[in-house]
Design brief:
The chain has about 120 residues and is of the alpha+beta class. It has 3 helices and 5 strands, in the order H-H-E-E-E-E-E-H. The chain has a 5-stranded antiparallel sheet with strand order 1-2-3-4-5. Helix 1 (about 5-10) packs antiparallel against helix 2. About 25% of the residues are buried.
């Protein structure tokens, strides 16, 4: 078992169900490489595309580290006071607007392919 799947199976109920759904979709449909970074699952092509973060109250945040560079024309992603990251919390598998998220994922993948990621960390 891969460390990401091991991570997911340490959770129960809705959190496990949501993370498994995203993990399987991101790996099989979008050919993203999963890897544990910062103690949570991240998904990569050239650089990081998105990540899954289990949050309190049985939710999972599906987030984009380069969210500030995405159009967010669907109005789904929230900034929550963060400069770069944008994401949305799901508590039920049935709450996931999959078609809308597919559009956002496609945009994030195109961004990753066309514009190299630059770290904004102070050196």
């Amino acid at each position: 078992m891969y460390p990401v799947e091991e991570f997911i199976y340490n959770y129960e109920g809705n959190q496990r169900e949501i993370m498994l759904f995203f993990h399987q979709t991101l790996v099989s449909e979008f050919n993203l490489r999963p890897k544990i970074s910062y103690k949570i699952p991240f998904y990569y092509r050239k650089s990081w595309i998105c990540y899954l973060n289990p949050v309190k109250e049985d939710g999972v945040e599906f987030a984009f580290p380069r969210g500030n560079e995405l159009s967010n024309e669907q109005g789904l992603l929230e900034e929550k006071g963060r400069q770069q990251v944008r994401g949305i919390v799901f508590k039920e598998l049935s709450d996931i607007p999959f078609q809308t998220l597919k559009e956002i994922l496609q945009e994030a993948i195109v961004l990753d392919e066309k514009i190299p990621y630059k770290s904004y960390r102070k050196k």
